[in-house]
Amino acid sequence: MRKLTYYMAASIDGFIGDPTGDGTSFLRYVDDEFFAFLKAEYPETMPTHGRRSFGIDHLENRHFDTIIQGRVSYDIALEAGVPSPYAHLRQYVVSRSIKESPDPAVEIVSGDVVRKVRELKAEEGELGIYLCGGADLAGQLAGEVDELIIKTYPSVLRSGMPMFAADFHIDEFVLGSVQAFGNGVIVTTYGRK
């Protein structure tokens, strides 16, 4: 079985962005040391146009070959004129409002997202599935998440978009690794218990 990994950026108090989901305030922490880590360990989590501008589009996918994201996350790319933001991955966008994909490389999932993720997880392959967000989609898929990779930035937002928008439920995870950086960022990996 392939893994579904929720790979996200968060504040110390657990928000992935401001109340609208905007997480651009975290970008100030991507210094040379942290960027070198992201480039070496998770190059496929950077959108294709970003990979090209940084000259790293040639790097192979290390952990994921598939991405699933919500409509709000996808809208950010569409607003920037990028209908295929992760061209180096198989792309799925969960949306009830987008009726037709603006790009043939992006498949719109409008039905049972849990069933779709289970189908993707059941496929053969060494690389996993990158859950890009946002909070609503993560809440719908919380029971399917096998791994959490949390890039915790040294800031407190006080309110904002949570990691999971869902009803109360306890899911237990086991600590896998912790890596700290000079700028105060901590990357923590957890596996489902």
Account of the protein in words:
- With 193 residues, the protein is α/β, with parallel strands linked by helices.
- Helices cover 21% and strands 30% of the residues.
- It has five helices and ten strands, in the order ββααβαββαβαββββ.
- The protein has an eight-stranded mixed β-sheet.
- β9 and β10 form a beta hairpin.
- It is globular, with a radius of gyration of 16 Å.
- 31% of the residues are buried.
- The mean pLDDT is 96.
Structural descriptors:
193 residues, alpha/beta, 8-stranded mixed β-sheet, two-stranded antiparallel sheet, 10 strands
Distance from N terminus to C terminus (CA atoms, Å) equals 16 Å
What's the total number of strands? 10
> Helix amount, in percent?
10-25%
- What's the alpha carbon Rg, rounded to whole Å? 16 Å
Number of helices: 5
pLDDT < 50 runs, ≥5 residues: none
The percent range for strand residues is 25-35%
As laid out across the biggest beta sheet, the strand order is 5-4-3-6-1-7-10-9
**Overall SS class:** alpha/beta
Mean pLDDT, nearest integer? Answer: 96
Large-scale geometry: globular
Question: Can you write the helix and strand succession as a string?
Answer: EEHHEHEEHEHEEEE
Sheet bearing the most strands, described?
8 strands, mixed
